[in-house]
Design goal:
2 helices, two-stranded antiparallel sheet, binds iron/sulfur cluster
Length: about 90
């Protein structure tokens, strides 16, 4: 049986925590101002900023996003909403 736990520093990059999710963040990229706060606070480092048409935008790796909602809480323009995960 495979158990996903954080057993040592940085092991969350090995253990895919996406299966823990009940809610998933949905980002409105039009509303996003590209501040990078969501990427900075994500405890799983699941958010990376990429340049799109000269502007920084966040992209979420759902293999690692555990749906904690910290990004949505910290977004200064409320561009992220948490939606119930469809299983
Ligand atoms: S919901 Fe949590 S784990 Fe997922 S991207 Fe936001 S801060 Fe990261
Ligand atoms: S915190 Fe909000 S405004 Fe800032 S990059 Fe993330 S989604 Fe965009």
């Amino acid at each position: 049986m495979k158990i996903n736990i954080t057993s040592k520093p940085s092991s969350t990059t090995i253990n895919k925590t996406g299966g823990w999710r009940t809610y998933r963040p949905k980002t409105d990229l039009d509303k996003c101002i590209g501040c990078g706060a969501c990427a900075a606070v994500c405890p799983e480092n699941a958010v990376v900023m990429k340049e799109i048409n000269g502007k920084q935008k966040p992209f979420t790796d759902f293999n690692f996003c555990k749906g904690c909602g910290v990004c949505a809480e910290e977004c200064p323009v409320k561009a992220i909403t948490m939606e119930l995960e469809k299983k």
